[in-house]
Structures are given as C-alpha cells and as structure tokens.
Design goal:
13 helices; Alpha-Beta Plaits; globular; four-stranded mixed β-sheet; four-stranded antiparallel β-sheet; alpha+beta
C-alpha cells in the first residue's frame, strides 16, 4: 500500500487550541521513517557567537528533503540546531543520499558535525511509543505539522544512546549537487517588540497531558496576551541585512572559498537593495511582503512539547516563570527558558509571493540553550 500521501490528505485544524484534542490526530503509517538531525557541539558554537550559522544549518536538512519532490507534503519541525522530518518509504533512498551530501557540505563549508539519524516508525512503535500527527493552518500560506505521542522524543533518545545503530550509514557522493533553492538568511536580528524574547520548551509530565497543555495555553493567553500580542516579530522592525559577515552564512552554502563567497555576498547585497526599494515603495506584491512573512512564521509549534518564541516585558516574564515553576514543582510539566532581546529568522521561500515558511528562534542561544535548561530540570523529575 502506498502511504506517500498520508500527510497531504490530513485535514488542517484552524484553531491552535484544537491541537490539545487527541481525536484530531492520526497515527503515522508503520512504513514511514523518522529523520532526526542535530549539530554536535552546538552549545560551543553558540558561545563562539555562531548561532546564526547554527540556525541556518539546522534548516538545511529540511529544505534539502522538501526539494526532493514538490508534489508531496513532508511533515517537519525545526528545532534551532536541528530538525525532525517524517518521510514515506518511497522517499527513503533519495533522502538518505541527500542527507549524506548535506552532512558532508556542512562539515566542509561550516566546520560542523551534523548528526543524522534514521529510525523506522516500526522501531518506535515496538517500544510502546506513538507518532500521532495533525496539521494546523497558521495562515493561507503556511500549514504546520503538529506531532505528539512521545515518538519523536524517543527517536532522539535512540539516536543519542544507540548512535552507531541508528546513524545514517549512506556515504556522500556529490555534496555540491544538493538543491537548497528557497533557503535564505537575509534579515537582521529583529528586536523584541516589548523588552525580552523568550525561547520556551514546555513538556507535560503527566499521562493527562492534554489537560495540562490546555491549562498552559489558557494561562499563556492571560499572562502574555493572545498569539498576535506575544508575537516576537514586529513588521516595522524587519530590516534586510547588508552586513557581509551575516550574509556569509548563506554564501557558505555555495563555497568555502573566500573569493567565491565574496561574489555571492555582493550578489545578495544587490538583491537586498532591490528588495528594500520594492518593499519601501510598495511596488506590486512587494508592498505586502513583510506581512506575508509575519503570517508564515513558526513562532509557536508542538512536537511532543511546545516550542515557542514569544515577546514579553519583564513583568510578564516574571509572572510566566512563576506559573511554570509552580507547575514544575507540582510535577505537571518540565520547562526550559532562554532570554534574549531579539529573534533570528531563517527563511524557506518556495514562491516569492506565495508559499513561505520562516523559522524563528531567539538570538544568543534560543532553543538550544532553552533545551540545556530543560534537560537539567528533566533530570530532577
């Protein structure tokens, strides 16, 4: 039986709170595979000030797999320094080769070790974990995968603890041939619309997790306001970058040669200048371009835990931390927070004035450092 269109056929939810209802989910077919990628030593890279590169490399595996075929929807979740991707059986061979090439390019051009794990869904189901999936329509231009059941978290555990067994064995063949079209990193860091940017990881500990998550969403609205009020992106503060060092992150996709990278950076500066003029003078569809980005950000998502980038003032931060700590002490949930004053945006642009996805993370460590704090609390549970 061909299950390639399983995810494509799922109906999308239209209210974010609907993701807390189990009846809205379907089980991933047994013949699918879970792909886990992450950067080894990402914390060290963050300390060295390379978090923009960490984010960009974290998105590379997603766009490379999505570009295998434009006709089939592939569910994925961006995690800051890596990603989770679910693929059907008939994508297996191509995906393994593509990701082997991505891994080699990352090593050569960025100096990072990209760990890639490939775990059959049957292996996860055999250990009494589930991979339940639904869709949430963020806007007319972006539909987000929502995943629960403990399967993704268990896949990460298997990769970490049985790396030799589950790591990608395929060897790179032509790392320069990978199609990264649509992957861009051309915006300056966006300052918080309030005072702070919080990178949040929230996971329920209790079997009655849906009730805990519902309570969290209710309290989040009370403390921070609705999704629009807590959104970390303010359209007026979005600025295209003309900083050669920052544009170098994207230029490294094409070469690690300084002179070749220079020409790519120069080209991006010229494109950004044109884009700035088109946006500023609201020429054609460009007048709505920033609004379209705002509508296609992944600031709030769920993959066995809530991952959120939100803007707060310091009073709101204190109230949210007090709520989370109280729930943690009651053993209802585990959480991790990282605070910064701005957010970073990495873009997947499939159609310039159509389908977009924009990965948002907190600057100076974001999800990766929130994860470090999360793991420390998780040990005490």
């Amino acid at each position: 039986m061909n299950n390639s269109n399983f995810y494509t056929a799922l109906k999308a939810l239209h209210k974010f709170e609907e993701i807390t209802y189990l009846a809205n989910y379907s089980s991933l077919p047994e013949d699918w595979f879970v792909i886990i990628t992450d950067i080894q030593g990402s914390t060290k890279a963050i300390v060295e000030g390379r978090y923009k590169e960490v984010n960009f490399v974290g998105a590379m595996s997603i766009i490379a797999v999505l570009n295998i075929s434009k006709s089939i929807d592939i569910p994925f979740v961006f995690g800051g320094d890596g990603a989770s991707i679910l693929i059907p059986k008939n994508f297996y061979d191509q995906t393994c080769l593509i990701l082997a090439n991505v891994r080699e390019l990352v090593k050569r051009n960025y100096g990072f070790e990209l760990r890639v794990g490939v775990i059959p869904a049957t292996e996860i189901y055999a250990h009494s974990k589930q991979i339940l999936i639904t869709k949430y329509e963020v806007s007319a231009y972006y539909v987000q995968a929502i995943i629960k059941g403990g399967g993704l978290e268990y896949a990460e555990y298997l990769l970490k603890n049985q790396f030799q067994r589950y790591s990608l064995k395929t060897k790179a063949q032509d790392y320069k041939s990978v199609d990264f079209s649509g992957l861009e990193c051309r915006w300056e860091a966006i300052p918080s619309p309030k005072e702070e940017i919080l990178s949040l990881l929230i996971r329920a500990n209790d079997e009655n997790s849906d009730a805990i998550y519902k309570d969290f969403l209710v309290n989040l609205d009370i403390i921070l306001g609705d999704a629009k009020q807590r959104n970390p992106i303010k359209i007026e503060d979005m600025k295209l970058s003309f900083d050669a060092k920052k544009l170098s992150t994207e230029a490294s996709l094409y070469s690690n040669n300084v002179f070749i990278k220079f020409f790519f950076i120069l080209k991006m500066m010229l494109v950004n200048l044109l884009g700035k003029l088109l946006i500023s003078f609201k020429i054609g569809e460009w007048g709505k371009y920033k609004e379209r980005i705002f509508q296609t950000t992944d600031t709030e998502k769920f993959d066995d835990m809530f991952r959120m980038i939100v803007s707060t003032d310091k009073f709101q931060t204190a109230k949210l931390e007090a709520y989370l700590q109280n729930e943690y002490e009651k053993n209802n949930l585990t959480y991790g927070i990282h605070k910064s004053n701005s957010s970073l945006i990495t873009c997947l642009v499939f159609q310039r004035h159509g389908r977009h996805v924009h990965f948002v993370d907190g600057s100076d460590g974001g999800y990766a450092l929130a994860s470090k704090e999360f793991k420390l609390r998780n040990k005490r549970v």
